[in-house]
Design goal:
This protein is α+β, with helices and mostly antiparallel strands. Helix content is about 45%, strand content about 30%. The strands form 3 sheets. The chain has an 8-stranded antiparallel β-sheet with strand order 5-6-7-8-3-12-13-14. A 4-stranded antiparallel β-sheet has the order 1-2-9-4. The longest helix has about 30 residues, at about 225-255. It starts with a strand and ends with a strand.
Amino acid sequence: MLSLSIADQYHLTIQVDIPPELSRVQLQAYFFFPAKLADNSDVMNKSSFYHNLLQQQQLVKVEPISCHTIDRDLLIIKQTAYASAQANQSRYVLALSEFVSGIVDLQENASLAQLAYIGDQIEQFSRIHDNEQLLTQGQLFKLALHLLMYHYHQSLLQAKHQASKEDKLWLTVQIQRLCVDADILKIKLSPTSEAGREKLLNRLHIAKRVIHRPHQLTRKKLKDGEVAEQLIFGFAAALAMAFATGIAFATQKAFGNFSTPFFFSLVLSYIFKDRIKELGRNYLMEKYFSKYSQHHYRFYQHGSSQLVYDAKEAVYRQKPAELPEKVNALRKRFYRAESHSFKEALVYKRSYTSHTHSQPNSQFKFKDKLTVNLSKRLRLLPRMVRSHWEETESNIKLHNVHSVYPINIVLVTKTDSGCSYYRYKLTTSRKGIHRLEQVE
């Protein structure tokens, strides 16, 4: 249900898969940064965390992809490819999306038998749409065929690169046949220039988004968190203003108007008013958002007003005494080994509520992909490179070794059945993310 992975040099991906039988799920991510990072105010800044957070949601079928599901989707495509009724057209678009995603996913590390099966399915898919003039979704079919043929071509090339001499002959024949069919259909599979490859991959990326539109969700951000934030700001400003006004009234009563003590009390009270307003706002926001949400999102089925899920999130700092008992125990465990780790945690909380129990799309699970951008944080680290000599069989090599800093992460998922805890160690430097390890 929960996975943590490295997206690239500076990005970390948290993926949450919520099955349809769960109505409520809560994710809590505790980031324990090194002291060199945590001492910088930008690192623990909540606004900066939100601005650098990317999110993507979609519905994914619970049933695993197999030859049976692909054959079933192809049968639906055959029945509805030339349909004029709106309901059958919707069935065609949905089946096409599932067929394309199933074929593409099945090609990963596919055997020769699976590649042969995929080739036959793509050929059948093309023959179903032989009369393009009568197709009700002709443009969608062309995008899907281009996407399928490209990924199949890439899988054949990868398999040929790793195959034995006996298998390369069959793969070569398949590649040649596919290229001939692509030339007839005027489909580009392998541009020779860098600009051509960039243009092709951008086109296929857009095609993939268009094809998978039935499973995409529309995200709407509500304003209830912003209203609470403004109320907190107003309350903190009112307290600060009450303090400054009380000091002014007290000194005015004691020393009178236009006196030197009254003048200094006004200056000092207004100086402290700004500090009290800032400190009070931060303190009240920390306390409020540790229990309630700062942002509230609703996710709707694409092209309709059908509510699927809603999510509430908040970011706040927590001291060791305020951490949950289990999380604090894990913190003490790695703090003994890495004393330079910061004691306070930056906590990201996200709660999900399902609205699919009474709807026909409950056979889909909700997939939430969150990408955390760590580039600004890691670039604040000092650049320390040390030299390391190593002798091999042929020569002597010099290695530049970067000083690394661990970021400890504790992920907690809460459901009706209980809590699950996962601890990760992210090894980083100014150069970026080096590795991610799950610690038992």
